[in-house]
Amino acid sequence: MATITAADVNKLRTITGAGMMDCKKALVEAEGDFDLAIENLRKKGQKVAANRSDRESTEGAAIAVVNADKTSGVVITLNCETDFVGKNEGFVKLATDLANQALNYDSKEAFLASDFNGISVAEKLIEQTGVIGEKIEIRSFEKLSGAFVGSYIHAGNKIATLVALSANVAGADEVSRNVAMQAAAMSPIALDEAGVDSDTIAKEIEIAKDLLRQEGKPEAMLDSIAKGKLARFFKDNTLVNQDYIKDNKLSVAAYVKSLDKDLTVTGFKRAALG
What stretch of H or E contains 215? Predict the structure, then answer.
């Protein structure tokens, strides 16, 4: 029987992220063969993943990162089953490492197939399912590009957002972060009126009309009053039209223009656990 040293166990733990006892057991079963031990740990992950495939994974970590020149960003959620795991330092580090890798890919599928320390991201998730004993998955994957992209991660890694501005001007970093914070807090459904889909608009108009009928308003007046209520809906639910949370005398659009009269928000992405 091969002699398994503490250094061997630590080496396998560094490679896989598995627990110390799991690594020692895998090395003993593999008689010191590192490749076989890694394969055994991954097989364990596949078995655990199959057994927990129907579990809800609503906890985890939402992470937003941007590239060095602030022209592109990605937001992902690495989901797990329990808040205890989601808050674990090693889990958050894995989520951050994966987010940084995701910067290089334009689709979730390409990202999951990419190499992550010798195995694919998808295989890494299965491996970690075996290590942690919970269902682990990438739930959200959103990319955003622009002249300047800023990010915000809410305390506890529950919500992460990206915001793109029309130009890279002095102060863009602070403004984009503040607007990203707005998007995290206020959960807008679109950037502006043009981004709201027609089905949502039609539904809001019908809801407004039904309420007006219940109030006894004349049928001939419903369309004009409903349009006014729709304008209020846009103000409350589209990012650039919302009241800025740090100064409700300004809209988000007006706040951005207070830095530069030509500056606008060109896009945002938001990912939340749950």
Answer: none
Q: Is 241 strand, coil or helix?
A: helix
Q: Are 251 and 241 in contact (CB under 8 A)?
A: yes
CA-based max dimension of the chain:
90
| Confidence (pTM) | 0.79
> What pLDDT digit, counting tens, does each position of 211-221 carry?
878 888 877 77
The pair of structure tokens assigned to 136 is 């682990």
190 Cβ contact partners less than 8 Å away, ≥ 6 residues apart:
196, 237, 238, 239
Alpha-carbon span 150 to 268, nearest angstrom: 9
Residues 6+ apart with CB under 8 A from 242: 182, 186, 188, 235, 236, 251, 252
The length of the chain in residues reads: 274
Look at residue 153 and tell me whether its pLDDT is greater than 90: yes
The distance in angstroms from the start CA to the end CA of the chain is 48
